[in-house]
Amino acid sequence: MINRTTTAALAAAVAAAALMSTGASAQTANTDKEKCYGVSMAGKNDCAATGNNSCAGQSKADYDAKAWKYVAKGSCATMEVTLKDGMKRKGALTPM
Questions:
Q1: What is the pTM of this model?
Q2: SS3 sequence, the chain?
Q3: If 0-12 CB within 10 Å is exposed, 13-18 middle and 19+ buried, where does residue 40 land?
Q4: Nearby residues of 93 by Cβ (< 8 Å), 6 or more positions away
Q5: Are strands 33-37 and 47-48 parallel, antiparallel or unpaired?
Q6: Which of 1, 12, 63, 95 has the least C-beta neighbours within 10 A?
Q7: Straight-line distance from the first to the last Cα atom of the chain, in angstroms, rounded to the nearest whole number
Q8: Radius of gyration of the chain from its Cα atoms, rounded to whole angstroms
Q9: Sheet with 33-37, side-by-side order of all strands
Q10: How open is the CA angle 64-81-73, to the nearest 5 degrees?
Q11: Interatomic CA distance for residues 93 and 65, integer angstroms
Q12: CA dist., res. 71 & res. 14, Å (int)
C-alpha cells in the first residue's frame, strides 16, 4: 500500500514539474517579442483587447486597432500599415 502511494505521489510530482517547465519555456520564447496593436491582417491576429474578439485568428478587419500580434521587440513603433482610406498608421504597444 505504501509503495503504491509513494509511486503515485512521485508520478504526480514528475507530471507537475513537466507542466511547469513547459510553461516556463513558452514564456521565455516570447521575451524577444512584444504585442503590437493595429498591424495584423484579418484572421491573422494573435489576440485582442477585451471586448473586441475572443482571441487568435478572429479579427474581422485588416489592421484592427484593438487586435494585436507578436512582433520582434522594438519593431512595433516602426511598423507602418496603409488603411483602406489610404492613410498610413504605425503600430502601437497599447490598444488604439
A1: 0.64
A2: CHHHHHHHHHHHHHHHHHHHHHHHHHHHHCCCEEEEECCCCCCCCCEECCCCCCCCCCCCCCCCCCEEEEEECCCHHHCEEECCCCCEEECECCCC
A3: buried
A4: 34, 35, 36, 37, 76, 77
A5: unpaired
A6: 1
A7: 61
A8: 20
A9: 33-37, 67-72, 47-48
A10: 85
A11: 11
A12: 34
Q: Write out the three cell numbers for 13.
A: 510530482
Of the candidates 12, 9, 95, 5, the residue with the CA atom closest to the CA atom of residue 47: 95
**CA–CA distance, 34 with 25 (Å, rounded to integer):** 16
Cell of residue 43, nine digits: 484572421
pLDDT at res. 90: 97
From 60, 59, 73, select the one nearest 91 (Cα to Cα): 73
5-53 pLDDT tens trace? 555 444 444 444 444 444 444 555 678 999 999 999 998 988 876 665 5
The single residue listed with the C-alpha cell 484579418 is 42
